[in-house]
Automatic annotation (TrEMBL):
It comes from the Bacteria. This is Major facilitator superfamily permease. It holds the Pfam family BT1. GO terms for cellular component: membrane. Keywords: Membrane, Transmembrane, Transmembrane helix, Transport. It comes from Thauera aminoaromatica. It is found in: Membrane. InterPro entries: BT1. The lineage of its organism: Bacteria, Pseudomonadati, Pseudomonadota, Betaproteobacteria, Rhodocyclales. The keyword Ubl conjugation does not apply. Coiled coil: none annotated. It is a multi-pass membrane protein.
Length: 541
């Protein structure tokens, strides 16, 4: 028994330590910076609420503009491939923009009068919000491609590493990338808990002091990403010395370390398609026309699908079939609609889940998602995406049943038979503990396959286009959620702020049917996608 436990620990945890390479650290440091970026989220929310007179409509429009840089990830990814030798410069530029955004907020909080003398506080805030995402998308595009470069193709003797071993290393690299991002969010959650502990009783001046310290602490974010690039440069110089000692010429060393196996040429379809994609998103998004979301989604799906068809030509027929089957399955799995805000309102109003309890659930989710990446490491490396999605589909369907049960009083029955121990909060925590480790399991194999199969001269381009496609699936999920909430009407209680009179009564009567519908769709849609790929003769990674 002990031997079996040790063998499992060795295969899923200890082996990861043995497979860890110093070359993995540079992209991991850039990814960790992205995870830590949420450090200022709470502070930013309170700053807007307490010190800026911006309307909800204006903030929504600002959020739209802040999301535009992520639509630019496709051309930025292609730019990374075109400027591969000089990719560090893009990280430096991104870090500069992030630092500038943070310094603007430090000035607004620490010395608002001096900032107001230059231009209005609201204008400074808008500038800060728009600078940050541009910096992060630049760094993310570079980090994606760096993960491919980090995995060696030759061993210490110069012999090719077997494909199975290379695939495992790519899976390890991509898993560690998710670990770095999620680990950053866990650190952020803990930091906010510590720094805001007891802050509700502090005078406003001391609260502002905490806000300022958090933004000053956030300056570690650009330093972390820049440090990753500097480490990458150091490792390349060290490798150059090793190759020189083996008798390689300077030209040969330069080719091996800095140039892809095949030169990248500007792809007019990618650049042109990206330009159309961004222009259409901005035009329709700002027009306010009816069904604008649907128009943007349909056009985006068409454009990105067309660009994927162009990228398929860069692969062998077998690899192209695998990529196509993989994206269909992943899209269906990530496009699943959710119950929407109504389920959260019901938990707050009917189950008594307060802010403190929900924040602890968030921390549990982040921590256990991180643990799940280690727990399922071998599973992700050894199973196909179709097998993984079938497992996740069946498991998440089963785990959705307790929430449906609580709508019908399951928690009242369990509490009555356990002396109040197994109440609604107990069930929620247990359900979260079981479901959280599954959060990132479906994405790691796909990222590993892209890293393993993308042409060397189009690494960043493949990651960027696939990221756009999987993010498009999340847009489909949001549209599906909207449609279901139009079909099943759910309302929370709304009171008049001045009189306290109830203007809209709570109505959760249709929530049960909504939860059942969401669960059935979540079970059927991924399985149907897998069946379709099999009938179409496609494979999955």
């Amino acid at each position: 028994m002990l031997h079996a436990i040790y063998r499992w620990l060795d295969r899923n945890l200890l082996e990861l330590g043995r497979e860890m390479r110093l070359s993995y650290l540079p992209p991991l440091m850039v990814y960790c910076a992205a995870g830590v970026s949420g450090l200022t989220g709470i502070v930013g929310t309170f700053f807007v609420k307490d010190y800026l007179g911006l309307s909800a409509a204006f903030l929504a429009a600002l959020g739209f503009w802040a999301g535009i840089p992520w639509a630019l990830k496709m051309p930025i990814g292609h730019l990374v491939d075109l400027l591969w030798r000089y990719k560090a410069g893009l990280v430096y530029l991104g870090a500069t923009l992030i630092a500038a955004s943070l310094l603007v907020m430090i000035g607004l909080i620490g010395n608002p009068d001096a900032m107001r003398a230059v231009m209005p506080i609201e204008a400074w805030f808008v500038l800060s919000v728009l600078l940050s995402p541009v910096g992060y998308v630049m760094q993310d595009a570079v980090a994606d491609a760096m993960t491919v470069e980090a995995v060696p193709r030759l061993d210490a003797r110069g012999e090719p590493i077997p494909p199975e071993a290379v695939r495992l290393m790519h899976t390890t690299m991509q898993m560690l990338g998710r670990v770095a991002i999620i680990g950053g969010t866990v650190l952020v959650s803990l930091a906010n808990v510590v720094m805001f502990q007891g802050s509700e009783a502090l005078p406003e001046v001391e609260k502002v002091s905490i806000y300022l310290r958090i933004y000053e602490l956030a300056l570690i974010i650009p330093l972390l990403s820049v440090s990753g690039v500097l480490l990458g440069g150091f490792l390349k110089r060290r490798e150059a010395k090793r190759l020189a000692a083996l008798g390689r010429s300077r030209a040969d060393i330069d080719r091996l370390l800095h140039d892809p196996e095949e030169k990248t040429t500007p792809n007019g379809w990618i650049l042109g398609g990206s330009a159309v994609f961004v222009a259409l998103t901005i035009t329709v998004g700002l027009s306010g026309i009816e069904y604008g979301q649907e128009i943007i989604f349909a056009a985006s799906f068409t454009i990105i699908g067309f660009m994927i068809s162009r990228l398929l030509r860069e692969l062998s027929p077998e690899a192209a079939r695998t990529l196509l089957g993989t994206v269909i399955i992943i899209f269906a799995f990530r496009a699943l609609p959710g119950p929407g805000a109504g389920a959260s309102w019901w938990m707050i109003d009917e189950l008594g889940f307060d802010q403190s309890f929900l924040s602890r659930l968030d921390l549990i989710t982040s921590a256990l998602t991180l643990a799940g990446l280690f727990l399922f490491r071998r599973f992700m490396a050894e199973k196909s995406i179709a097998q993984i999605v079938i497992f996740l589909t069946v498991t998440t369907t089963a785990l959705s049943l307790p929430i449906i049960g609580m709508f019908h009083g399951l928690h009242e029955w369990t509490a009555a038979h356990t002396g109040g121990v197994v109440d609604a909060r107990f069930i929620a925590i247990a359900n979260t503990a079981l479901e959280s480790p599954l959060g990132q399991v479906s994405m790691v194999p796909m990222l590993a396959w892209i890293a393993n199969s993308a042409p060397p001269h189009l690494k960043a381009t493949f990651f960027a286009v696939m990221a756009s496609f999987t993010n498009l699936a999340l847009s489909a999920s949001q549209l599906g959620t909207k449609y279901l909430n139009q079909l099943y009407t759910i309302a929370r209680e709304v009171k008049d702020a001045a009189t306290g009179a109830i203007t809209t009564p709570a109505d959760y009567g249709e929530l049960g049917a909504l939860l059942v519908t969401v669960t059935v769709i979540a079970l059927m849609l991924p399985l149907a996608a897998i069946l379709f790929t099999r009938l179409a003769g496609l494979r999955s990674a």
